[in-house]
User: Fold this.
Amino acid sequence: MKVRVAVNGFGTIGKRVADAVARQSDLELVGVAKTRASFEARRAVERGYPLYVAGSGDPQRFADAGLPVAGRLPDLLGRADVVIDAAPEDVGRENRALYQAAGVRAVYQGGEAADVAEASFSALANFDAGRGKRSLRVVSCNTTGIARAASVLARWGVERWDVTLVRRAADPAESKRGPINGIVPTFEMPSHHGPDVRTILPDLPIATTAVVVPTTLMHVHVNHVRLRRPPASAAEVVAAFRATPRFLVFAPWEGVDGTPQVMEFARDRAGERGTASADVMENVLWERGVRLTGSELYFFQAIHQESIVVPENVDALRAMFELAPNKDVSIAATDRSLGIAHA
Amino acid sequence: MKVRVAVNGFGTIGKRVADAVARQSDLELVGVAKTRASFEARRAVERGYPLYVAGSGDPQRFADAGLPVAGRLPDLLGRADVVIDAAPEDVGRENRALYQAAGVRAVYQGGEAADVAEASFSALANFDAGRGKRSLRVVSCNTTGIARAASVLARWGVERWDVTLVRRAADPAESKRGPINGIVPTFEMPSHHGPDVRTILPDLPIATTAVVVPTTLMHVHVNHVRLRRPPASAAEVVAAFRATPRFLVFAPWEGVDGTPQVMEFARDRAGERGTASADVMENVLWERGVRLTGSELYFFQAIHQESIVVPENVDALRAMFELAPNKDVSIAATDRSLGIAHA
Amino acid sequence: MKVRVAVNGFGTIGKRVADAVARQSDLELVGVAKTRASFEARRAVERGYPLYVAGSGDPQRFADAGLPVAGRLPDLLGRADVVIDAAPEDVGRENRALYQAAGVRAVYQGGEAADVAEASFSALANFDAGRGKRSLRVVSCNTTGIARAASVLARWGVERWDVTLVRRAADPAESKRGPINGIVPTFEMPSHHGPDVRTILPDLPIATTAVVVPTTLMHVHVNHVRLRRPPASAAEVVAAFRATPRFLVFAPWEGVDGTPQVMEFARDRAGERGTASADVMENVLWERGVRLTGSELYFFQAIHQESIVVPENVDALRAMFELAPNKDVSIAATDRSLGIAHA
Amino acid sequence: MKVRVAVNGFGTIGKRVADAVARQSDLELVGVAKTRASFEARRAVERGYPLYVAGSGDPQRFADAGLPVAGRLPDLLGRADVVIDAAPEDVGRENRALYQAAGVRAVYQGGEAADVAEASFSALANFDAGRGKRSLRVVSCNTTGIARAASVLARWGVERWDVTLVRRAADPAESKRGPINGIVPTFEMPSHHGPDVRTILPDLPIATTAVVVPTTLMHVHVNHVRLRRPPASAAEVVAAFRATPRFLVFAPWEGVDGTPQVMEFARDRAGERGTASADVMENVLWERGVRLTGSELYFFQAIHQESIVVPENVDALRAMFELAPNKDVSIAATDRSLGIAHA
Assistant:
């Protein structure tokens, strides 16, 4: 019997997670909730997802738009075993009482503070911490990217890790956010991303700083790591990243010079091997962008803020409901379903 | 027996046309030619398209990248009935002698001058002009957008049409082109787009001007048309656009405020109803962006420069080889195969 | 005896108008009012402008920042004959009662509705309409640009004028406004700019449409005018613009391809001939961007949204207080003081 | 008797250096050389700088533009004691033979390799190294910014310094350079900036990495320094930067959130206290952007790529010709003349 999953919020994260859930053989998408009629709500209907009205939404607006709704959020919760909360930042916490009242488990996103849930989660790093929990929090896109990389670096022992996060200022469809021309430092130093990683990897000696730049495509992390037991060569590092699920490493001959070509690659890939979306759910590295000098490792990684947490939400459900014996099995199933499994 | 199609050039247009050809039941994609190994070349191999080395390309580079090649461009031409030339601007003309020597027919793109081919082509506007031709030129993205709209407006009689083309400065993956911040007027006034439309619709009283702006997503046309026999209302205009293939009209409640949301819609749609790509091959209009004052019609349309000519290339092949009795049959077949057919 | 001028609001417009007023021999800047301490408030102090606290501003905040204040806005109004309202859009109207209570005259900006003042004003177009008025409204940047051009075109008779306004999305320092990548149509068609021009030139047969694009530098107007009594050549049109105050026309050899180079020119000019600012208070045209075909005139003009209304505010004061016998005398005095007078 | 200075190249750097030289009482600007007529060449004439034709430039083009020229580059060199080479990258090296043949000393820019000159130079860091030299190389904008900061940090002992350079992709007037939307990593890791700083400070334990982002305004450096003898507080660090020439530190209340407001500040400042330009020749820091945790210091600094090397070029001349007894005297004179001296 499948675990019945509701998705509350159908924006950037919610719509992707709903699509991913719908592709799993051990999960059933019982519906999605949305506040307003929009082209995204219409698409939920076209995909056959039962549509519910969330929060203060007005069902009449949906009716006027010709979009049939199946009820309100509480109705949806009544049909689910678990809800994925994909509401805007800080609204997840407000929703918590609602979920508890409905007796459903909940997966929150990284925009909420860590104490919203019993544990923070990232599949490669701490899958087992999610087992049997009634609530989990999938960490944010940047934290997910760091936690994944930490899983690779652990074999060499991280003595000290500095990351500069060069953050995209807005998602592609957020047309009211700027800056159009300029760089805005994040004056929280070190930034909150380091402590957030430590909700998953408590002892990681990491310090993060951040700036915001006028692009919509991806974040880029500039990493400098001192390793305790360094590998023999950068090639060994590249091979380790290549061998790990949810990493994509471009070779020099591929002509991928930066995030514009990474997203072009993603658009080309859509539809191949079952990859329906134009997303990049993997951490993206470049062979040319990995350099080892003694025990000092430098590498760039690009993070697709819109989609990187999508497979993590699926794995979080598997961990909660103990649907997989271990992380490797869960990750492999998720990645195959999303078309991002390694060959 | 299927018409055997080669695609020479596998960049922005070529890769999309190849995918489209591969989806047609009356066409066979016999191979694609590319100058350099790249992530796009790798994808051709992964999709199972026979890969040939174009122009001055070095086969060893492909071998070094692990990409098997089936020969050089002349070998490909030897296996084809027709070639779609998707080479960079002005290279198409240079390739013409090669195509003629190989005895294959050819479809050129709008970057070439009109006299590269026997006729210029746009399916809605002049499908029949393509019948039996040995060479055709599919007009450029902006010209295609205008020619399509002209097919709708014709019923009311166009007395005078002014278009300001607000052009995207670069495609998403062209990361070396600017400007980053600024507007650049096109000092050719009226611009070449008007005369280019008249290669298809010789009598259209149109004048176009253009500026280039720092975006990668879509062009936007600002149209002002004086009509001879105006319709009763803007709603009638909207209905006419909605009823025409290759037009997509957003309703106010959909929340599509500009090109960022149009492309978001396209990414969401990828994978639905067989629409594998995140492209928008339709002219995009907004109900709110159509206004009629007496005989004066104002409307905006957005044009996805990367993909709008893709279905036109397919129809050009059908016209050339007389694979369809008329434009309606050809367009319907093409649009169904690409997932953009009206319901 | 000089007219005593207060400036209420010290943002993009207010700070420039204050600087301009300070340079006039017949006006005295008695102070500026600002809501919050900031680098701009500090600069007012450094320039020696008496600083007053506007609206709900807290004097303690200024004290904490080490910025001496001379009182609150009502104190400033008590020392002035006239106030230039440079408050944010719609706040000007709220301020009106305050100004009337203080018995001062007022000049409002174009963000306010036309009925905020006795008349709308643009120096070249209707200087005399401002004579002796107790309140005036200087029209917005785009309307000012159109009204000025209309003053040149009038000699040939305007039969019909279509303008597409390609608008900058944010000012350079407005780092929270987008879009970063995309074009947003203005769904008011024709846009409000046409009716706004007619508050000054009631019979002008103009229709305007607008799109917003991701740049911070300047607006660009794409103009198409049908003339009743067309001149002999485009050169005659260029000469007429060149001979008119507040027009700047670039020659082809100057290498000014778009708004980035126009603003570069402005930065270079700062400090020359008394032009202290890096602004472009003139309408900017290009010789290459003027084309005449029979009675059809096409031309581009670029409008520096931050500064173009600055000299108009000065002239509005001269008209109100009858400090100049006619517009030519006022404009010449203003332009000399600002370093933008023709040789 | 003044040292006679020629400036070869009148683009972004050359025009600013020429203006700065013209403001010095111990230097005489004997002329500038430029390849092409342009708005910038016209401005040289308007400022009264003798204009010479550089390189392969055609004097007839200048004549056609109405710009009087005084000869060719060799003529200019014949009238000078020293030339500032502000030619495009790598052209400086080609010019070297010309300068040597003319018997003039030369100052090169940081785009040239270090061995173009006898020594590399940055005033705060190694003024005395320039004394009496016949050729000097002023290091590039980013290297200058780092070298200046190093001069402040030296008092606490730098054990290790990591810098991520978030680089602007193009200057404001370079309208053909991208990317428009995306981040491009610099795959040279560590980047050349570290070794370049060591041409001045040979023992500095610094490692730099870089990304390019779509903005034109300023670079931002994200710094992480481990100090040997850390100060007591971040406030002590801020005070040290504030007390050093060519540093500008914004307080929290000033409302400067990022580079857009820094450049707004610069435009406002133009004309004040003799600061004719809208440039920021100082390293820019933020109080909020300095954080000390034990011996770990984090700070952001913004670097105005167009102008930061301008005062350095002036000081290089003073060092070469021993016009000042020490760096403090030279720097103070330069900064006063440019309006950037501390109060």
Notes: The first strand of chain C starts at residue 3 and ends at 8.
